[in-house]
């Protein structure tokens, strides 16, 4: 069960050396074995969330609904219900980029999930963001993860990693300077040739540079950008912290549980994955904006904001689809007006935070 907490001191999730304290402005709001959720409130009512996962005590795996080589789409609550029997079920959050034009659909870039026997090379691997693709490798049985330069040849090799989610470098331009929904991942705390701690930043209002910098403030040494816009979703113990009505084909399931030796469910080999470069430095996003046209991954990506912080152009806020934050036209118009009125430099912590 989720433990809701008043702001209190950090409780280290594992053996020494302990993790650094939370970044300034964040408060612990939920925790279970090996996992914590922190919230940074803002005056606009759209908090930032930071999920910390210690792979010595918890696991992160892909959650799918495959139909042959394609994937059925569900919302985060839908995936949450599909994982009802998962031991220590704690959170689900969106992951892979995909095409919003079909259901079932395919991942834009490489995706490997051994528990499903699923491997897909991605329809955009050789045509979209070439040279800017990064892969999240997770090896739960060895209690480590890494963010590396994507290599299509590793997808067919379980020894590379049984869980592989290919997404984008933090400086790949996905409306880079727009203040819109973002989901980013990071790793820290070297362990056994990789990193023992996974970090996930989820927010309804962030630029790419801001999301990347927040992860750096939490000690991340490598970062990557997962799908964003209307796909961004975070559900913790049945509570939607960041909601969207968009159905997605892939989420990451966080379990506050770790298999005993020999009970991991898959063999992932023993190769080290900590030595590859992820090119994780970002400059905040120059270059042309990808607004989702031309068959680009996640065709619902928001339009580029011009100077002031704009509301999302895709249906992630509930304007066209209903539900989520500001559900319905009246709520959505209020949200858009609120976001458009605030410049990035005006963002201030909520009173008392």
Question: How is the main sheet built?
Answer: 7 strands, antiparallel
Query: Order of helices and strands, N to C?
Result: EEEEEEEHEEEEEEEEHEEEEH
Number of domains: 1
Approximate strand percentage: 25-35%
Report the span from N to C terminus: 25 Å
Provide tags for this entry:
19 strands, mainly beta, disordered N terminus, 353 residues, five-stranded antiparallel beta sheet, globular, seven-stranded antiparallel beta sheet, 29% strand
Structural notes for this entry:
The N terminus is likely disordered. It contains 3 helices and 19 strands. It has one domain. The protein has 353 residues and is mainly β. The longest helix is centred in the C-terminal third of the chain and has 14 residues. The protein has a 7-stranded antiparallel beta sheet with strand order 1-2-3-4-15-14-16, with helices on one face. The chain has a 5-stranded antiparallel beta sheet with strand order 5-19-8-17-18, with helices on one face. A 5-stranded antiparallel beta sheet has the order 10-9-13-11-12, with no helix packed on it.
